[in-house]
UniProtKB/TrEMBL annotation:
Gene3D superfamilies: 3.10.620.30. Residues 35-125 form the Transglutaminase-like domain. InterPro entries: Papain-like_cys_pep_sf, Transglutaminase-like. This is Transglutaminase-like superfamily protein.
Amino acid sequence: MILQPVTDDLAAYLAADEVIDHRHPPVQQLAAELATPEAAFLHVRDQVLHSADAGFWSGAFRASEVLAARNGICHAKSHLLAALLRAQGVPTGLCYQRLEDGEGGFVLHGLIAAHLDGRWSRLDARGNCEGVDARYDLEQERLAWPVRPELGECDYPGVYAAPPAELAEALATAVPGESGYGYLPSELPGQETSPLA
């Protein structure tokens, strides 16, 4: 699919903010230790548990908190990966998918886009489990959840420098230990959707 950065200013995708707080010393230290974007991806995918897989919702969503908790939902893991890559000097944004939730509704899934080799590439560090085989691949997307348009699922083409306000507000309401995604919006309001190209 054709990704659409919300700004042409790559500096916006290197900025530190309240959520992608990559100037936090432990985040910087880990980014330096990992040294490469692929190592950062593998660390977040494999060493930070997805809350659903762990059976415990940490409630963490700021990158530094996710690193400390070593547990978070897809959005949280995306924030940590974005922070690690920004700390390595790689412009990185946030991307979203609307996915069917298995109960007749939808859930908003978070992943990242990294600006490497002169172009944006989406990467999904959700964490592999049965039926999920996300990989670091800059040539061909290997996401956790390829969308199924026939079910109403979609990719949002936007690449965001920070989480949209409504999503950030929802993430801040997560209750540690309380499972489920009911606090999250099911879509990005007012955003165009795009089928996979």
